[in-house]
Amino acid sequence: MKLIQKLREIWSIEELRERIILTLGLILIYRFGTFITLPGIDPTKLTNMADSGSGGLLGIVNLFAGGAFSRASVFALGIMPYISASIAIQLFTLAVPHFQRLQKEGESGRRQLNQYTRYLTIVVTAVQGWAYTTYLRSTDGAAVLTDLSPAVFWVSTMVTLIAGTMFVMWMGEKITDKGIGNGISLIIMVGILARFPSSILEEAGARWSRGGMFAFVLEMAVLIVVIAACILLIQGTRRIPIQYAKRNIVQGGKMMQAGGVRQYLPLKLNASGVMPIIFAQAIMFFPALIFQVLGINQNNPILMDLNDITSVLYNSIYFVLIVAFTYFYTALIVNPTQIADDLKRNSGFIPGVKPGKKTEEFIDAVISRITLPGAIFLGFVAIMPAIVMLFDVNRAFALFFGGSSILIMVGVVLDTLQTIETYLLNRHYDGLTSSGRIKGRQGNMYQTSY
Question: Which structural domain, as residue segments, surrounds residue 399?
Answer without folding.
Answer: 196-445
